[in-house]
């Protein structure tokens, strides 16, 4: 039956969810992934591939009919604290038993919820969620997952009231809600079939996954010059120096470029006929896209195209049919014009678009996006929220800042579930340089931490760095310095200070499986001193790396280091920390030895090249000297994109009785 909506929060008939097909689809899905050229690093465990399809009733958090309690709406989500209730009014497409799938995020795991519809209800305790986003506490870095709740709801009437309530909760506990998806049990086979069809349609994307990194440039009609006033877009297109741009990209070592077709305004830097009909005056005679593609191709660099769907397809200004026609017409024209010059698309605005146009034909749009190049890849950006459809090839991955590297090429939980991994970071903490007579912001990502993150992603999926650009097509010197350091490290093995890319420690999937080796006891100035040197430590995680004589690039609290050792004799030892930290970096951490825990704050030594010695305290090893283990565990990095310290060593100096 064709889905219907009531206009007050229920979205029926489009997308959402292959949940509940766990057993029926798993085997076919794995076979399909292999057939498409996907290589997983470990066997795919049975998992509910809850990627969206067109057979669900979707109730979005921002489209409720009513709400009660301490509830805050942020972008596409509601933050629900304490005892609350939210309600939707929906039109039921067909009577039957429905499973409920909750798309949510939770940091504390202290929430029990119930979903009620007429006389039926389902109840579940929600565990904490984790994923690609760091535990920063920022509302835009919540790790959303889809969770199938136990039991079913009975929907028997043409219209129904659905309510979500929090139970057994405290005032401080919170759950972040994106949507409830109701899936009829009778539709399981249809959902499984669509999911398999989508996966089998994907081309081999190994070339993209195996690339180290690429660059995204939001070069738009709003891009500001170094000095003076912003010029008209057509003039800027005509004066764009393609040769200089391509040389700059080559110097960065990037394997691909994602370049903007349009962004906040409906411009396109080429003479597209259909685009000009729809947006008179917004195209150009010069085909800048073709020239950039040709220039990059000469240097074996691929071009992908950024397009803002919500802008060019007039989100909220047109009805469903016209929205679909605009998308199909414009994307077919672009693909046919450029053929293999464009290797992929990165479509923006899809969590908003998919909520508004619930009946959008994703499958036919996917095929339209392949016009002129069947191997072309596409991603539909749903930001931090669950993906809008399985009809795409890789995850858009807008994680903004450093995240958690993936354990596999195929994402197996979280917002990008079932897609190839890809991460998009904002090097300078912004997307477009729009302020006239103002220099581009300095990079906010610590180079050492960035390289450690990229190391963790290597072979699993590429990392794209959005780089701010002036209207003349140039970037800042400070951004170029970082990119050249990345190039030297990734492609030439030349590490900047504080980084040994080849020895950055195990990936998260390997943690706990690598035995800790004992550190050598070195005779220092005072006999019997135990020297726990950086080069002898074990690094647990990917957010720290070795320099010549220290551990640096320590950009996240999830990574810790350890030593196993035997003390030469029983007694009390003074704990001396040998470390350096640059201004505006640092954090809180613990030094743990047995039952002794020291809480420490990083000391500012001026620069990372100026190590100093600080006495942390005294530890008693009178009872046991064998099989000792010392840990350095970060609690919090004070500023996002900064590093904890450069750790050179910890000395345990015996104290005379």
Fold topology:
Elements lengths: L9 E3 L9 H14 L20 E5 L5 E9 L2 E15 L4 E10 L5 E7 L2 E7 L18 E4 L4 E3 L3 E9 L6 E11 L3 H14 L4 H4 L3 E5 L15 H7 L2 H11 L3 E5 L12 H6 L9 H11 L3 E7 H4 L7 H19 L5 E5 L1 H7 L5 H7 L8 E4 L17 E3 L22 E4 L20 H11 L5 E4 L10 H16 L37 E4 L4 E3 L4 E2 L4 E2 L7 E6 L6 E9 L6 E7 L2 E6 L10 E9 L7 E10 L8 E9 L3
Structure description:
The chain is an alpha+beta fold and 657 residues long. The chain has three domains: 10-194, Galactose-binding domain-like (Jelly Rolls, Sandwich); 203-496, Glycosidases (TIM Barrel), CATH 3.20.20.80; 503-654, Jelly Rolls (Sandwich), CATH 2.60.120.260. The strands form five sheets. Strands 1, 2, 3, 4, 5, 6, 7, 8, 9, 10 and 11 form an eleven-stranded antiparallel beta sheet that branches. The protein has an eight-stranded parallel beta sheet with strand order 16-15-14-13-12-19-18-17. Strands 21-24-29-26-27 form a five-stranded antiparallel beta sheet, with no helix packed on it. Strand 6 and strand 7 form a beta hairpin. Helix 1 (22-35) packs parallel to helix 2 (188-201) and helix 5 crosses helix 7. The chain is globular, with a radius of gyration of 27 Å. Residues 1-51 and 498-525 have low confidence and may be disordered.
At a glance:
The protein is α+β, with helices and mostly antiparallel strands and 657 residues long. It folds into three domains: 10-194, Jelly Rolls (Sandwich), CATH 2.60.120; 203-496, Glycosidases (TIM Barrel); 503-654, Jelly Rolls, CATH 2.60.120.
């Amino acid at each position: 039956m064709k889905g219907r909506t009531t206009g007050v929060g229920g979205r029926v008939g489009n997308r959402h969810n292959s949940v509940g097909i766990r057993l029926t689809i798993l085997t076919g899905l794995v076979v399909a992934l292999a057939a498409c050229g996907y290589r997983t690093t470990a066997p795919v465990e049975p998992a509910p591939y809850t990627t969206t399809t067109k057979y669900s009733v979707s109730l979005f958090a921002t489209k409720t009919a009513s709400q009660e309690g301490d509830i805050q709406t942020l972008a596409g989500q509601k933050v629900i604290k304490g005892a609350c209730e939210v309600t939707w009014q929906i039109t039921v497409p067909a009577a039957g038993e429905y499973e409920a799938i909750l798309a949510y995020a939770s940091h504390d795991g202290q929430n029990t919820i119930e979903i009620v519809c007429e006389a039926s209800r389902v109840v579940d305790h929600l565990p904490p969620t984790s994923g690609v986003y760091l535990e920063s506490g920022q509302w835009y870095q919540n790790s959303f997952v889809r969770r199938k709740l136990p039991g079913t709801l009975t929907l028997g009437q043409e219209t129904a009231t659905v309510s979500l309530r929090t139970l057994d909760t405290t005032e401080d506990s919170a759950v972040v809600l994106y949507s409830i998806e109701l899936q009829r049990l009778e539709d399981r086979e249809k959902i499984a079939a669509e999911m398999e069809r989508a996966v089998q349609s994907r081309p081999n994307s190994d070339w993209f996954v195996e690339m180290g990194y690429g660059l995204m440039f939001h070069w738009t009609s709003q891009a500001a010059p170094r000095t003076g006033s912003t010029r008209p877009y057509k003039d800027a297109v005509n004066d764009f120096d393609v040769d200089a741009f391509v040389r700059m990209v080559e110097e960065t070592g990037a394997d691909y470029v994602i370049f903007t077709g349009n962004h906040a305004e409906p411009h396109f830097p080429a003479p597209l006929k259909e685009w000009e009909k729809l947006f008179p005056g917004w195209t150009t005679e010069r085909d800048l896209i073709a020239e950039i593609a040709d220039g990059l191709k000469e240097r074996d660099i691929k071009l992908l195209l950024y397009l803002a769907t919500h802008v060019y397809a007039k989100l909220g200004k047109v009805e469903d049919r016209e929205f679909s026609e605009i998308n199909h017409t414009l994307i077919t024209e672009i693909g046919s014009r450029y053929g293999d010059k464009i290797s992929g698309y990165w479509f923006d605005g899809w969590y908003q678009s998919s909520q508004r146009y619930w009946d959008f034909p994703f499958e036919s749009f996917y095929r339209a996006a392949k016009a002129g190049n069947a191997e072309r890849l596409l991603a539909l950006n749903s930001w931090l929220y669950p993906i809008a459809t399985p009809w795409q090839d890789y995850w858009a991955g807008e994680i903004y800042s450093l995240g958690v590297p993936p354990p596999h090429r195929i994402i197996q939980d979280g917002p990008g579930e079932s897609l190839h991994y890809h991460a998009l970071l904002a090097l300078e903490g912004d997307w477009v340089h729009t302020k006239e007579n103002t220099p581009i912001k300095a990079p906010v990502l610590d180079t050492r931490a960035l390289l450690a993150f990229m190391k963790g992603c290597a072979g699993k999926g590429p990392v794209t760095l959005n780089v701010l650009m002036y209207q003349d097509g140039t970037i800042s010197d400070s951004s170029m310095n970082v990119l050249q350091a990345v190039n030297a490290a990734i492609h030439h093995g030349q590490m900047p200070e504080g980084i040994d890319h080849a020895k950055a420690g195990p990936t998260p999937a390997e943690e706990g499986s690598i035995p800790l080796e004992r550190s050598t006891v070195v005779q220092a100035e005072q006999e019997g001193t135990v020297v726990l040197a950086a080069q002898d430590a074990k690094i647990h995680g990917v957010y720290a790396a070795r320099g010549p004589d220290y551990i640096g690039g320590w950009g996240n609290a999830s990574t810790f280091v350890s030593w196993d050792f035997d003390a030469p004799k029983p007694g009390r030892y003074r704990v001396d920390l040998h470390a350096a930290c640059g201004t505006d970096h640092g954090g809180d951490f613990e030094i743990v030895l047995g039952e002794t825990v020291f809480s420490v704050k990083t000391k500012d030594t001026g620069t990372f090249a100026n190590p100093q010695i600080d006495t942390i305290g005294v530890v008693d090893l009178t009872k046991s000297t064998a099989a000792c283990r010392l840990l350095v565990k970060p609690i919090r990095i004070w500023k996002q994109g900064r590093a904890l310290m450069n750790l050179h060593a910890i000395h345990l100096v015996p104290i005379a009785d």
